[in-house]
Design brief:
Structural class: alpha+beta
Largest sheet: 5 strands, antiparallel
Radius of gyration: 40 Å
Helix content: 25-40%
Number of strands: 30
Distance between the termini: 98 Å
Length: 578
């Protein structure tokens, strides 16, 4: 009996999963928005319902809209898109509405197969008192006649026509004193004026004044033909010619306020944020970590956002990547985004203060100065982990050996003193001490000379032996793998300087006096840590650093003293230094 119950439960679960899979498109998220907002009384608007997948309109009831709007009709369409090799269906339902009264209204959620859309707010203004002259008319207006210099405003052009247009052209506004950009596609709807129903084509622009003062805009022009009834033969093919001008308008552009501070940047809203690869990033000496600072500004385009000054904490270096600048449209207004990535490389351990980031901007809604700010951040930088225990033990052995060597002359000197002290007089002891001191200094001088000769021979041999590895580095550079190039250069540098091996590309750049090479190493370091999809030009890097790398193309015994690619990190003091 229990087995039967379990099988029944499993069957129900399996059936539920199948139903969820088959009904997934209906459960996909619905979105709803209108094509125009606000609208004037007598003008139509379109409510657009979209969903990824098939939209099930069976049982849909539009009567819920009848309270505030007249439903003029509905249309639907579907589009098939292929994204990353997968086929997706985008379904759309369009509902044309005519407001019944002026005011602020809320389109309630609409139900489709058990799923609901979000509510949509709509503002309906009182009917326009402008008279539409004749069969065709053009209007031009701006949402703010007194903007600040460099403040973006919306210019709207409307073409009204009550006849059948067979051909025509509507000019765009032009003026060298402002920057003009088209905003989206044309919108079409109907509007009632003076008891006449007109078809309307609406075109929107973002205009940004480049200078303050009065700017007179010439009215745009419609030039075209409309079909006319020729009686028995029906509509004339040639039609009637129309040329209609919009009334000009004047902008009174205000200058930058005298009490504003910082770089002038007008916008309706500005938000600044930062992103790290991890929620709680770990900072370690010599390891780069990418910080992304993001600025989102409403009412401006991305290229209008000023460049930030990203200050670095003491004890860290930074390598900035090229800024990413984008612009999108939200509620018929541009939204600019500027993202700046910087590779932060700590060079010493301990607590560091990442300075605050500030951007002064002018709030065009509140007409006041504001500051978008990222607060300062305290970071704890960890030292480089000591993974080579042999180095530590070796250091202890050297210390012990040095102590033994220091004790040896004392023991020998004590033994000599004990031997001669019973029979020596004061003058004899003084001469004996002088002779021993001279012999000791001669021995030390001979030993130092042998060591310097040995180091010079070792250096020449080591540099000359780099010819083959450097050819391998050239091959690696040509392959363009940034991390492989970085590893090869660091490995070469460590083999060329076993006494003071550089920890990374930063140390390698520090000991170079060639700006071209330093820039090339910095470019490679940024490429290693930046999230970039662009291919790295390793061949160009090789051309920048090849003359700096010693021993390339030279055989054993070649004179390489003219190269000084790896000067010491801590140079020895020259004669006369204290």
């Amino acid at each position: 009996m229990r087995d039967t119950s379990n099988r029944s439960w499993l069957a129900d679960l399996f059936l539920m999963v199948i139903l969820m899979m088959t009904s997934a498109p209906a459960w996909a998220e619905l979105t709803a928005h209108v094509d125009r907002n606000p609208v004037s009384l007598g003008e139509t608007l379109r409510l657009i319902i979209e969903v990824n997948g098939q939209l099930d309109t069976r049982g849909f009831d539009s009567s819920i809209l009848n309270k505030n709007f007249e439903v003029l009709g509905t249309t639907s369409n579907s589009q098939i898109q292929i994204i990353n090799g997968k086929q997706q269906v985008l379904s759309q339902l369009n509902i044309d509405l005519l407001p019944r009264a002026a005011g602020d209204f809320m389109i309630p959620p609409l139900e489709f197969a058990g799923d609901l859309t979000q509510p949509v707010s709509v503002t309906v203004k009182p009917a326009s008192t402008d008279d539409v002259a004749g069969d065709i008319s053009v209007e031009m207006n701006v949402d703010d006649l007194t903007p600040y210099v460099q403040q973006s405003v919306i210019l709207t052009v409307k073409l009204f026509f009550a006849v059948a247009i067979v051909e025509g052209n509507l000019s765009d506004p032009q003026d060298a004193r402002v920057q003009i950009r088209r905003l989206g596609e044309d919108t079409r709807y109907t509007a009632d004026r003076q008891e006449v129903r007109y078809q309307v084509v609406e075109r929107r622009f973002v205009i940004t004044p480049r200078q303050s003062g009065s700017i007179d805009f010439k009215g745009v022009t419609f030039d075209g033909r409309a079909a006319i009834d020729s009686g028995v033969s029906g509509f004339s093919i040639r039609g009637k010619r129309y040329r209609v001008h919009a009334e000009p308008l004047t902008l009174e552009v205000q200058p930058k306020p005298k009490f504003s501070t910082g770089e002038w940047f007008p916008a309706s809203d500005v938000q600044i944020s930062e992103q790290w690869p991890e929620t709680a990033p770990t900072f370690t000496v010599g390891e780069a970590i990418t910080r992304t600072v993001r600025i989102e500004a409403h009412g401006v385009f991305g290229e209008q956002i000023p460049e930030l000054e990203l200050r670095l904490p003491e004890g860290s270096r930074g390598y900035a990547d090229k800024a990413s600048i984008t612009t999108s449209i939200d509620k018929d207004m541009p939204v600019g985004v500027r993202e700046q990535r910087i590779a932060l490389v700590p060079v010493k351990a301990g607590r560091q203060v990442l300075p605050a980031v500030e951007l002064n901007w002018w709030d065009t809604k509140a007409d006041s100065q504001r500051v978008a700010r990222l607060p300062e951040r305290i970071i704890e930088v960890q030292p480089v982990p000591d993974t080579d225990s042999g180095v530590a033990s070796g250091g202890q052995s050297d210390t012990k050996l040095s102590a033994d060597q220091d004790s040896t002359p004392s023991e020998k000197q004590s033994a000599v003193t004990n031997i001669f002290s019973p029979v020596a007089h004061a003058d004899g002891w003084r001469w004996l001490s002088i002779i021993l001191a001279i012999l000791w200094l001669a021995t030390v001088g001979l030993w130092i000379g042998q060591q310097r000769t040995h180091r010079r021979k070792t250096k020449v041999t080591s540099i000359a032996s780099q010819a083959i590895p450097l050819r391998q580095i050239q091959i690696i550079c040509n392959r363009g793998d940034v991390r492989e190039i970085r590893s090869a250069l660091i490995e070469w540098a460590r083999s060329a300087r076993p006494d003071q091996p550089p920890a990374g590309l930063e140390d390698l750049a520090l000991i170079c006096d060639d700006k071209t090479v330093r820039d090339a190493l910095a470019r490679l370091d940024v490429a290693c840590y930046a999230n970039s999809t662009e291919a790295f030009d390793g061949a160009e890097l090789w051309q920048d650093i090849r003359s700096w790398l010693p021993g390339f193309g030279q055989s054993e015994g070649t004179n390489v003293t003219r190269h000084s690619a790896l000067p010491p990190l801590y140079p020895e003091k020259t004669t006369g230094e204290r």
